[in-house]
């Protein structure tokens, strides 16, 4: 059984009224730890992104919009910057779900 299947089964147990203080505490700890790790990764990416933002005098958000629209030249720097900015967006979305 996959982790996703186990989580689905656990969710079903909760829907059916499972009341387990132990599981509640463990799940909260896991979510908190994953949130902290995700935030740490976001912070690391931010440090790398700021180098590009300073060098090119543009926010990563604005750059990424231009890059996705095909309005930037092809270069190693821009490809790396876009990859880092997309990774940060992915992690921010993940963090939002973890903290919901």
What would you note in describing this structure?
The protein has 100 residues and is mainly α. The chain has a domain at 34-100. 82% of the residues lie in helices and 0% in strands. It is built from four helices and no strands. Helix 2 runs antiparallel to helix 4 (76-99). The protein starts with a helix and ends with a helix. The mean pLDDT is 97.
Q: Characteristics of this structure?
A:
single chain, 100 residues, mainly alpha, 4 helices, elongated
What is the chain-wise order of helices and strands? HHHH
First-residue to last-residue Cα separation: 26 Å
Helical content stands at over 70%
Q: pLDDT under 50 segments (min length 5)?
A: none
Percent of sequence in beta strands: under 5%
Mean pLDDT: 97
Rg computed from alpha carbons, rounded to a whole number of angstroms:
19 Å
DSSP summary: helix tally: 4
Blueprint (SSEs and pairs):
Layout: H1 3-15, H2 21-56, H3 60-68, H4 76-99
Helix pairs in contact: 2-4, 3-4
Quick rundown:
The protein is an all-alpha fold and 100 residues long.
